[in-house]
Amino acid sequence: MPIVQFTRFKTDKPEEMTKVVGRAKKIFEKHGAEFLRLSRFHTGHWAGELLVTTRYANWEVYGKVQEAVAKDPEFAQVMADGLKIAELQGRNIAVSIDL
């Protein structure tokens, strides 16, 4: 069952943050994430914020990717660059339910 992680960022520099997230995408997918996508909320309480969505095949893959990313010096730099221009607002994990 797929695992999806949602991470929200608030920034007044969305174009710069898009470039930073593009760098993160390559790293996460290299380590085994199925995908990393970036969206912007256009309505509601989070309007204007950015949403990073990553998907993993299962908990085992999620754990392996998180461990690899935590040890990846390139990702450490990406995260540092992102936090210079954006504020982490929240992170959630959702588990798919088979229908």
Automatic annotation (TrEMBL):
This protein's name: Quinol monooxygenase YgiN
Gene source species: Bradyrhizobium huanghuaihaiense
Domain of life: Bacteria
Listed SUPFAM superfamilies: Dimeric alpha+beta barrel
InterPro entries: Dimeric_a/b-barrel
